[in-house]
Amino acid sequence: MAKFSNVCILLLGFTIIMNFSSVLVAGLCVVAVVTCACEVWSFLAHYMKKKPQEMKNFIINTVIKLRRNRYESVLSNNDINYTRYDGVRSKITGAHIYAVGSYAETMPMSVCRDADRMVIYEQFPLVVRNQQRGNCLIAKENSHEPLYVLLKVLDHMGLDEECRSLINNDGYLESEGFLDFYIRRLMIEAHTDTPTIHGPSASFPGTTTFVDKGTGREFEVTVEFDMVFCLKCESWPGNCFDYFTRKRLNDWPSRGLLESIHGLPFHVVPIGHHLSSTKNIEWRYSFSIVEKQLILGMPEPYVKCMIVLKALRNNYIKYSDSEKPTPFCSYYIKTACFWMCESVPHDTYKNTVLISKVLDWLIDSYHKGKMRHYFIPQQNLIRHLSVKCRDDVRAKLTEVKKNLRLMVMTPTETELFQEWWNCN
């Protein structure tokens, strides 16, 4: 068949040179194309028959690689410099602002629904564990839900005059009132409309500016900014210090990475546990800045795995806004990838197998009704979900795993941004 194909190509060239009729040229072109197509099809059929799993992995890995490279050409640390200013940030004064979440973790825009900002006003008091001194809040940890704390106010005069009304009769700072107060303050400073509340955050419209390092070209993208008002902690919680010493099968996080995150800022955010009778005065520990650093130091296959799973969640595991808290959020995917990165050898699995392994971890967690928090394993992240709800999520995750090949290779509407980029 190969010899015949070569003969057709030679004949095609000869007819052009000799100015034969266009009909003959067209006919020979059709024969040559069909012959070559038959050869390719024969090769693929032969290869898939002999090595179906290798061919499947090759196709899916190639698609993932192409999509990842395409996203990186728009939004990677190597090619695009994310400038830290936006419509909301420029109007906030007297505050430290940290970019966290998927954007800051270099996730592609296809899996980012909003941009997260942690806001810590300079006059906020410091959260401490046991020191009795001045303008500080004492953190009282909850043995049943160790991710949550109560904040005892020592010095009422150390708070803003308006914030003093947020202290209840027992001397604890109210988380719900705190969020409402600073949302109103931001609305006045930034001249924004009433935001949408998502847990401990307030969602405002804004713009983010990107700069192409190669061309110097700037462009703005309109996004929703989730502003989370936080209080800074003096040190890590007492119930997660074994995180730095626990045994790990892999050398991840490395000793150097552990030392670097130990000194990063640490915060509490104004949100209580869903089942708590005192949730209006409860605060939750936030590891967002630490998680950002860990992802930046995570092996690439796990980052790719996280990207694919977040994209699959956005398109195939959806829940309505009325189901709060959501039965399956992107934070659970991040948690699963952190645990797997500790326990699965980094050179053992290819991308598709790794994705399946992470899905297995999630499916097993929902089956058992227990998902351990990465930094505080005593905290069960899905304890509040009913059996019926957990079974529904487990069924959807199982369906995703079953049809992983098809779902990964199916284009999504989130790629429209790349079309916008190419047209501008």
Largest sheet: 6 strands, mixed
CATH architecture of the largest domain: 2-Layer Sandwich
Residue ranges: pLDDT <50 for 5 or more in a row?
43-87, 412-424
Q: How many DSSP H or I helices?
A: 13
**Strand share of the residues?**
15-25%
In the CATH hierarchy, the third-tier topology of the largest domain is known as: Beta Polymerase, domain 2
N→C terminal distance: 46 Å
Estimated structural class = alpha+beta
How many structurally independent domains? Answer: 3
CATH class label of the largest domain: Alpha Beta
**Share of residues in helices:** 40-55%
Order of helices and strands: HHHEEHEEEEHEEEEHEEHHHHHHH
Based on Cα principal axes, name the global outline.
globular
Mean pLDDT: 74
How is this structure best described in words?
The chain has helices at residues 2-17, 22-50, 52-75, 101-104, 175-190, 255-262, 288-296, 300-316, 330-343, 351-368, 387-402, 404-409, 416-423, and strands at 80-86, 95-100, 115-121, 126-128, 136-141, 148-153, 196-198, 201-212, 218-229, 231-233, 266-269, 282-286. It is an alpha+beta fold and 424 residues long. The chain folds into three domains: 1-40, no CATH class; 81-294, Beta Polymerase, domain 2; 298-424, Poly(a)-polymerase, middle domain (Orthogonal Bundle), CATH 1.10.1410. Strands 1, 2, 3, 7, 8 and 9 form a six-stranded mixed β-sheet that branches. A hairpin with a 6-residue loop joins strand 5 and strand 6. The radius of gyration is 27 Å and the shape is globular. The two termini are 46 Å apart. Mean pLDDT is 74; it is low at 43-87 and 412-424.
